[in-house]
Fold this protein.
Amino acid sequence: MPPAIPFNRPTRTGREPAHVRALLEGEKSLQEGDYARRCTTWLAQRLGAGKIFLTTSCTHALEMSALLAGIEPGDEIILPSFAFTSTANAFALRGAALRFVDIRPDTLNLDERLVAQAITPRTKAICALHYGGIACDMDALADLAKAHKLLVIEDAAHAILSTYKGRALGTLGALGCFSFHESKNLHCGEGGALLVNQSSYIEPAEIIRDKGTNRGRFIRGQVDKYTWMALGSSYTPSELCSAFLLGQLEGSDEVIADRLASWQRYHDGLRGLVSRERVELPVVPPDCEHNGHLFYVKTANLDERNRLLAFLAERGTAATFHYVPLHSAEAGRKYGRFVGEDRYTTRESQRQLRLPLWHAMGAERVDRVLSQIEDFYR
């Protein structure tokens, strides 16, 4: 029997069926075409981005970033351990050594103050994951990258339409990666996008995405045949995915406003428990505007977190925790190491409990969850 309040429901704006139906009733190819162009045009205009390539997932956008960055065995990548496996896999697949840095306890993002100590002559890039759609300190990371001639790659999987000092996340590093997985604010079931913000990477990105060929130049009539130019793979989504995604993008303002309303209702409703020092809540720094992607509470410790999870589950509410720190996993120990002291990564990951949050969840369901949490602490 499904939970009375599920953890997530994939967003539906109501605009998707018309686009999918128009595509299927037409005579155009189901490979990348007009709907993909309309999606990339929409994203470029809203994000103020350079060049955008739709991909089959954010995982693949990250893998393209690793290829574009020229990652080779022996190179090093700095990233948070509190991250999804795709963030690490993309670089480990190219032979890079992963250097995990502790997170900030307020935002759960990479602690920019600790990055310098992880930089060595072999460091190639910094991967900045914007957890929950709340930005890393991008000014500090940009200064470090400039001083040490490093790339900044943004893992903006959570961060569609979030900003840092008025600029869209995903547009601040050399490369930015988005997810359109069905667990995200906007989706096409499974999809992603690579934002190329440095012009020298545009043509190589097109080649990588076209299975390592110069097919794009051939289609534009710039060469008389296309051939294998570099390493690449099949990273291009179908037109069906793009048609569905366009309907999501067109309804994005409504979706994000609705999610932000639920996020704020959680935040306001838990202030009493905060004042009694029973839980801690997400922190949004003044320079950041987020997109309501997720909401969590932090309990006193792991035992309390697990008891609260069980308490909610017994009452039909599906809550969960997020990442098990990568450096503690078998693959993390094989492909990387933690630099410095793990003051917060493990502790905060064990205290964190994510609450249900989805488009059209509604105030009544949010209030039921709040009531259950109050009952637990009472």
Observations:
- The longest helix spans residues 252-269.
